[in-house]
Amino acid sequence: MARFRIEISRIFVVALALVIAFSGSAWEEQEQCITSILFMIGCVLVGIATLERLWCSLYIAGYKKMFW
């Protein structure tokens, strides 16, 4: 069983992704306002994470030039 754990994990991930992709949200049908607010919060958080990742990359690149 331990030999097949990677394959079993991959099958589980694919099955879970299919369930998530083809299922609907209860909030989307009932509360359009909540759906829009959650989408905007998600976009803002993705934007912040992208800027932080860029800053970290530039910060590390600056130190690599200094020490190497």
Reconstruct the topology from this structure.
Blueprint: H1 5-22, H2 26-30, H3 32-67
| Rg measurement, Å | 20 Å
Task: Kindly estimate the percentage of residues that lie in beta strands according to DSSP.
Answer: under 5%
Order of helices and strands: HHH
Major sheet:
none
Q: In DSSP terms, counting alpha (H) and pi (I) runs of 4 or more, how many helices?
A: 3
Q: Give the CA-based shape.
A: flat
Percent of residues in helices comes to: over 70%
Number-wise, the strands total 0
Mean of pLDDT: 86
Produce a short descriptive summary.
With 68 residues, this protein is mainly alpha-helical. The chain has helices spanning 5-22, 26-30, 32-67. The protein has a domain at 31-68.
Give structural notes:
This protein is an all-alpha fold and 68 residues long. It has a domain at 31-68. It is 87% helix and 0% strand. It is built from 3 helices and no strands. The model has no long low-confidence stretch (mean pLDDT 86).
List the defining traits of the structure above.
68 residues, mainly alpha, 3 helices, flat
